[in-house]
Amino acid sequence: MALKLSKNKKFDVDNAAIEVKILNKLEQGNSVDNEGHDQIVRLIDNFKFRQHVVIVFECLSHNLYKYM
Questions:
Q1: What is the greatest pairwise CA distance in the chain?
Q2: 20-28, long-range: CB < 8 A, 24+ apart
Q3: Domain boundaries, the chain
Q4: Does domain 2-67 sit in CATH 3.40.50.150?
Q5: What would the pLDDT profile of 33-56 be if each residue is shown by its tens digit?
Q6: What whole-number percentage of the chain has pLDDT above 90?
């Protein structure tokens, strides 16, 4: 799994909430698996921890920082 942790500032928490909404809509719109070729990262879970929003994703093969 891969985690994305937002800062506990209102702007960042609001952006994380929007990101979660978008990822949920994308998941609902793509209910057919398409054998993993849909090119959309899968949202596994999201929750708040000490006012930080934590988004849990599937772990993919490439690290963006190493790739860049």
A1: 38
A2: 20/46, 20/53, 20/55, 23/55
A3: 2-67
A4: no
A5: 555 566 678 889 999 999 899 999
A6: 46
